[in-house]
Design a protein that fits this description.
- The protein is mainly β.
- It contains no helices and 5 strands.
- The model has no long low-confidence stretch (mean pLDDT 94).
């Protein structure tokens, strides 16, 4: 009998963004069930967060309250049930 022990962080893939006038939708996939976080802001100082506790393989978060005609920086974070995280 064999047992597989997962010791690695989740893999994040297929990150897409759909911007709109004052909001954006960020979607991505993970190779195992995770929560979902998007950290974002108008500079490298990511001072806002959107979160979904999951766990899920497919993630979608809506970023609201964005100002029109501004550029935003973001990163996607997924944490699995063993508290290992990946950041893209």
């Amino acid at each position: 009998m064999h047992a597989y022990v997962d010791t690695g962080p989740p893999t994040i893939s297929d990150v897409t963004v759909e911007p709109d006038y004052s909001e954006a939708v960020v979607r991505w996939e993970t190779d195992e069930p995770t929560d979902a976080t998007v950290q974002f802001g108008e500079s490298a100082f990511l001072n806002r967060t959107a979160f979904s506790p999951g766990p899920s393989f497919s993630h979608e978060l809506r970023l609201t309250g964005l100002l029109p005609d501004r550029e935003y920086v973001f990163q996607v974070v997924s944490r699995d049930q063993a508290d290992r995280k990946s950041v893209v």
